[in-house]
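Researcher: I've been going back and forth with a colleague about how DUF494 family protein might be arranged in three dimensions. Neither of us has a model we trust, so I'd like an independent prediction. The organism is Eiseniibacteriota bacterium, in case that matters for your notes. Sequence below.
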Amino acid sequence: MAGRNDDERIREIISLIMDNDQEDAYDSGNIYTRLEDMGYSSEEIRRAMLLLDVDSVKGGILAEEGFGTGTRILSPAERSMLSLEAQGWLLWLRSAGWISETHMSLIIESAGLEFRAPASLEEVMEIAFRYEPSIPERSEDEDHTPVN
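Model: Here is an independent structure prediction for DUF494 family protein. You can compare it with whatever you and your colleague have in mind.
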């Protein structure tokens, strides 16, 4: 595994976590053990889990406990990683139910790791389609049924 930088390894871990079976999706202990067995360090795993915020998902924090499911505000750090067009498109996808909060966070973090800030709409779309190929490219496609 020599020769790969930390960001590449973190992206690999994030991909492995996201590709996990539904039964194990929120069992961070099981995921952690399997990733260690695959040769990832505890620091790399911790960083990836922080990016995904696995513990709050595992803890059962639901949208119903706070704002409505369509409400999402980008933090200053998230805004700095994305162009205005990319911000608007992601917020529209989230509010329309096309992507989950977890997917949105993963897309933003991937954009920050893969592209020079601010990531363009096209770059963010490229990442988003990896995780949810059925999402619309533009808001005019709203007549499709959301996947989440």
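Researcher: What would you highlight for our discussion?
Model: I'd start with this: The radius of gyration is 16 Å. After that, consider the following. Residues 101-114 form the longest helix (14 residues).
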